[in-house]
Structure formats: C-alpha cells, structure tokens
Amino acid sequence: MKSQIILLLAFALSSLGGVSYGQTAYQKELDQLVEYRDKALAAAAAPINERFQSSAQQLLRRATQAGDLEGATKIKEAIEANARSSREGIKDIKKELVGTTWKCAPGKPVRGGLGPTFTFTEAGVQPGGFKYEVDRSNTVTITFNQGGTQVMTLTKGGSRLEFSLGATDHVYELVRK
C-alpha cells in the first residue's frame, strides 16, 4: 500500500514537472516517436535514393555521350528533383552535423590536416578549429587555417564523407554513439 502511494506521488510530481515546462509527458514522448520515425524513414530511404542517383548519373553520361541533349536535360532534372526530395527531411544539415565525430574508414588514407578522427562543433572542426560550410545538403567544405579548402560529399544516408585529394580517394565514416 505504501509503495503504491509513493509510486502515485512520484507519477503526479513528474506530471507536474512536465506541465511546468509547458510540455506534457505525452508531448515529450510523441516528439521522441516522431523523431525516431523520421530518422528511420531517412535511413530506409537513403540506399534507395543512392541507387537511383548512381544509376541516373550513369544514364546521364550515356545520354551525354550519345549527344541526346533533351534526354540529358530530363535526366538531370530528375536527379535534382530526387536530391531535393531526399533533403526535405533534413531541415538544417549544419545543425545535424554539430556534435558528430568522423573516423577514417579502414583501408583508406588519412587526410593530412584532419587526422584520423575529427568532430564538427558549432565553432568549427575539432581538433584544429577549422571553419566549415554546408553548400548543399550533401556538400561540406572545410576551410583550413592556412587558407586551403577540402570539399566533401555526404553519402550513405549521411554516414560517410567522401572526397578526393589529388588522385587519392578518402573516406571518413560517422562514429555511431
């Protein structure tokens, strides 16, 4: 009996705490469910969108090589439309990057200046304090302190950063928490 009263009192106090901050316990749980759903949908759609982008790029090359300007234009429009629709779930990619840590993929070379791991913060890329910008939803540009830049493409549903430096391909993967 005493444990039931304590449990009821704890529940009542936790409910009041949520109300005092302007958010009920149900609202907080609903927000978590919506966030989980959105992340799951993005993760499920990412491989499909990547496959489409890859195949459409190949098709675009073939149309261009064949000299079919009209066909190439339609393919390019479809590629851009797919990229726009796959970005709709991400409101602000820079905000999504803050707090993420990236590690050089096994078997790939480390990019000088970045080191084997780095983290995006609101102030820049650490270690190093480099500035960064997001040009499009999948393009990140890091500006090094000496003035050089590195453009990277966010792939695999936002879990890989890929780029080339000279003739060398580099890949960094998102470190899951």
* Low-pLDDT regions: 1-11, 17-21
Shape: globular
What is the string of SSEs from the N terminus onward? HHHHEEEEEEEE
Distance between the termini: 41 Å
Cα-atom radius of gyration: 22 Å
Query: What fraction of residues sit in β-strands?
Result: 15-25%
Give me some keywords for this one.
2 domains, 8-stranded antiparallel sheet
Descriptive notes:
This protein has 177 residues and is an alpha+beta fold. It has 2 domains: 2-87, no CATH class; 93-174. Helices cover 47% and strands 23% of the residues. It has an 8-stranded antiparallel sheet. A hairpin with a 4-residue loop joins β2 and β3 (125-126). The longest helix is centred in the first third of the chain and has 41 residues, at 25-65. It is globular. It starts with a helix and ends with a strand.
Short description:
This protein is α+β, with helices and mostly antiparallel strands. It has helices spanning 2-20, 25-65, 69-87, 93-97, and strands spanning 101-104, 117-120, 125-126, 131-136, 139-143, 149-155, 160-165, 168-174. It folds into 2 domains: 2-87, no CATH class; 93-174.
